[in-house]
Amino acid sequence: MDEMIGTVGRIDGAIPASHRDCRVPEAPADDGEKAGPEGRISSHSHASSTARQQEMIALLCVFRLSLPGRFTYISRMTRLLESWHSLTLRKRYHLLNYLVRSRGYTRYLEIGVRNPRITFNRIRVARKEAVDPAPLAPLGHVMRSDDFFSMMDANGRAAEFDLVFIDGLHLADQVERDVENSLRYLSPGGTIVLHDCNPPNEEAQAEFFDGTQKVWTGTVWKAWAKLRATRADLSMCVVDIDLGCGVVQRGSQTCYPAPVQFDQMTYRFLTSNRRELLNLVSAAQFLSLEGRTSPLLKVSENVLLTGR
User: Fold this and answer.
1) CA distance 84 to 37
2) pLDDT tens column, 166-213
3) How many domains does the chain have?
4) CATH at 104
5) Is the distance from CB of 89 to CB of 98 less than 8 angstroms?
6) Has residue 166 been placed in a domain?
């Protein structure tokens, strides 16, 4: 139980027997998971569904254990709701499908697919295109992203993608080109999402993959930092899920005052300025920015701030 609770908060002390029989409604089927009869999740996704239910049961038990005062009550309710929101956006494809649904997107481009079962096949959208020079399964455009956009230019294609997911070569120069090219073909109100913007350790953000890293995010974060420091015409934030999913839209932002050359930025600089440099937000904060936060969460936050 401790292992499952760790993702949303650890329980201090044992749960009394009177609170162990907490029940919550059965969780809905995940994006990319198939719902069976009566809304139940099919057997291949049963384990993940059970884990999520157990996490929520644990949270509800914590909430019922002790309510010594009004502010403690509100604080616990806020944390409970924030944890519920964070469970709805855990992976890149959750975020992408959320954007498709909430914004009515119909045209999707994925750069850097490799294995389409990981992300591409999970996106529920009317029209999808994929680009990868060495995919593990047949794709529409087996080529480098630079060549794809050159082809787009040569064919005179207009801006026609609502949502672009960039997960290609994890080197800053290439990532920057992919973003700039994607912006040229992004529809009004469209969104670009970059994967691997928030490396978990110094080894993960090495310039090149040497085969020993358990996780390799490359230097994506350096491309992100440059855009954060130079593009006042964009709106940018990194949702703190799945190694950092950077969300880019046309708009405005206060540019981050980077004091060093972008190619000279070190991991120490990132760790010292991570939240501000990336504009790092939780899943719950992102949903709040999108205007999708539960009214109860907004009320509880207001009570905490005003005492009313």
Assistant:
1) 25
2) 999 999 999 999 999 999 999 999 999 999 999 999 999 988 887 787
3) 2
4) 3.40.50.150
5) yes
6) yes
Spell out where the chain has E strands.
107-111, 127-131, 161-166, 186-194, 234-239, 245-250, 280-281
User: SS in 3 state form for 165-207?
Assistant: EECCCCCHHHHHHHHHHHHHCEEEEEEEEECCCCCCCCCCCCC
CA dihedral (69, 294, 195, 122) in degrees, to 10, reads: 130
* Residue (of 229, 224, 269, 262) closest to 244 by Cα position: 224
Measured CA distances, 176 to 112, 124, 198, 217, 256 (Å): 14, 27, 16, 15, 17
| 258 and 114 assigned to the same domain | yes
Looking at the structure, tell me whether residues 54 and 130 fall in a common domain. Answer: no
Instruction: Give the tens place of pLDDT for each residue, 204-255.
Output: 998 888 778 789 999 999 999 999 999 999 999 999 999 999 999 999 999 9
- Residue 114, pLDDT > 70, answer yes
Same domain, 43 and 96: no
Query: Measured in whole angstroms, how far is the alpha carbon of residue 193 from the centre of its chain?
Result: 8
Q: What is the DSSP letter of 6?
A: T
For 107, the domain range is: 92-289
Amino acid making up residue 189: G
